[in-house]
Design a protein that fits this description.
Number of helices: 16
Radius of gyration: 27 Å
Mean pLDDT: 81
Order of helices and strands: HHHHHHHHHEEHHEHEEHEHEEEHEEEH
Strand content: 5-15%
Helix content: 40-55%
Low-confidence stretches: 7-28, 324-328, 449-461
Largest sheet: 3 strands, antiparallel
């Protein structure tokens, strides 16, 4: 669920009364029991697909309504948790300006989401519960799913609480006014209603959007990647037009590449200053010596991207630009692991700050932020046990964190400790007493514990792999036959 534009820190300036019944009165309150959620999970797990097409369609619709109702309840639970934590922080003497810190991070861990996503989830929950009761009622009754409720919240984020509640009342999603509407229709209806209520805020929102310009990188299949730039419309059009002109010019001279290929290559050349895009820029490629020198098939890992095929990694190191006057340098950094596990060979430092070489080791080992479910780029190399508390500066006590997670770790009630074992692990404890473990991703060449229980668990030959494939196919058919028989 994408919730760009929804943030936890939105200020509530007042709530206008809605003419519909409060969502709390739609369902009788049930006293909380520790096992009631597990009972629901067990009940869902006991369901079996229907035997006819009409039953199957009814089940699909009912389960979709159940998902919406659960999403609505999660929103109420998130807001209640936020209030409980703020109350506890106030009782503990925490300054008012710091109330609510760490709440979104705890929600993210509980929902197995990144901290950034947790902030948006909490922002969505607050808007639904306190400012948009009719949208909340539509979500609870299955008239809207969570994504479309998110669209309504997102498109009214620039309004005051009073105006947002008025838009919620105008749209009246709980009466079926948006039934059958697609995403575009819902966005258009919300935008139009928001503009009628407060045209100045909507206009100012567009002007403030330029401050959110950025460039991002995310993996794509087959050793490709998406390089995305969010730009003001004028600049974005100008960039695309410049690349288009260059592509048209090159192709008119007989270049065999497609227009899209020329535009992509031109972008790389103009940003890096070289046709290959690698000269003068260090690309950190982590692989075993067997992959590099002996043609082993063990995949490599490209920092900032992820796992790449062994053959592709070797080709990157072997390629040279066609132009002889172009400098091309390859830096090979050797990383050694202890035999039998994935630990990098440790070194210690008496300094408070991690030395440059140790920082590189930790960045290569952790790859992304070590907080569970957070895959943000590493920005800080942090002492797991703080230096002020006697923590040492070594690989075992170091972890790569993003900036947000490093600040969250310092909030009162949060503790982190390293765990013993062959693989670098740490345990994070939240103010509520819940604990979450994080294990460093396996380095290339490391045999994961799940596949090292027995040598025969690893396909050693083509015939072995064929046997496993045939077994999986037979199991699939057996399950299908059993389902049809039921």
């Amino acid at each position: 669920m994408d919730m760009d534009g929804i943030q936890e820190t939105r200020t509530t300036r007042g709530v206008a009364p809605a003419r519909s019944r409060a969502p709390e009165t739609l369902v009788p309150e049930t006293p909380w029991r520790g096992d009631c959620v597990q009972d629901l999970i067990n009940a869902v797990g006991s369901l079996r697909p229907g035997t006819s097409s009409d039953q199957l369609v009814d089940q699909l619709r009912g389960l979709e309504d159940l998902k919406s109702a659960i999403a609505a309840l999660q929103a109420r639970v998130a807001v209640a948790f936020d209030l409980a934590q703020r109350r506890k922080q106030a009782q503990g003497g925490v300054p008012t300006s710091e109330h609510g810190q760490g709440v979104a991070a705890q929600i993210a861990l509980a929902r197995r989401e990144s901290p950034n996503r947790g902030s948006r989830i909490l922002g969505l929950a607050k808007a639904l519960v306190t400012e948009m009761p009719r949208t909340m009622a539509a979500l609870e009754t299955g008239q809207l799913n969570e994504w479309r409720a998110t669209l309504l919240v997102k498109e009214t984020a620039c309004l005051s609480a009073v105006d947002r509640c008025a838009v919620d009342e105008e749209l009246a999603a709980d009466t079926g006014t948006l039934s059958g509407a697609g995403d575009r229709a819902i966005i258009a209806a919300a935008k139009a209603a928001a503009y009628r209520r407060d045209p100045r805020s909507v206009t100012e929102r567009a002007s403030r959007a330029a401050a959110e310009r950025h460039v991002s990188l995310r993996p794509a299949p087959d050793t490709m990647t998406y390089l995305t730039a969010l730009l003001p419309v004028a600049e974005g059009v100008a960039v695309h037009a410049a690349l288009s002109r260059q592509a048209d010019s090159v192709r008119s001279d007989g270049d065999p590449r497609s227009r899209g290929q020329v535009m992509a290559d031109t972008l790389v050349e103009r940003l890096t200053g070289t046709p290959g895009g690698l000269s003068g820029v260090e690309v950190q490629l982590v692989m075993t010596d067997r992959t590099l020198f002996q043609g082993d098939s063990e995949p490599a890992r490209l920092t900032g991207y992820g796992i790449v095929p062994a053959g592709w990694a070797r080709s990157v190191l072997a390629e040279r630009p066609a132009e002889p006057d172009q400098d091309f340098k390859v830096w090979v950094r050797r990383l050694y692991t202890a035999p039998g596990n994935s630990d990098l060979l440790a070194t210690d430092s008496k300094a408070r700050l991690f030395p440059r070489g140790m920082r590189r080791f930790i960045e290569a080992r952790d790859d992304t932020c070590r907080t569970p479910y957070c895959d943000a780029p590493i920005r800080h190399i942090d002492h797991i046990v703080p230096w002020r508390s006697g923590g040492t500066t070594n690989l075992h006590n170091g972890a790569g964190l993003c900036e947000q997670c490093n600040h969250t770790k310092e909030i009162s009630g949060w503790t982190v400790k390293p765990l013993p074992g062959n693989e670098h692990s740490l345990e994070i404890s939240t103010p509520t007493g819940h604990s979450y473990r994080s294990k460093a991703p396996p380095l290339p060449g490391h045999l994961h514990a799940a596949t090292s229980l027995h040598p025969t668990a690893i396909p050693q030959s083509r015939s072995h792999r064929r046997q496993l494939h045939n077994r999986a196919k037979a199991l699939k058919y057996a399950r299908r036959a059993g389902l049809l028989a039921a």
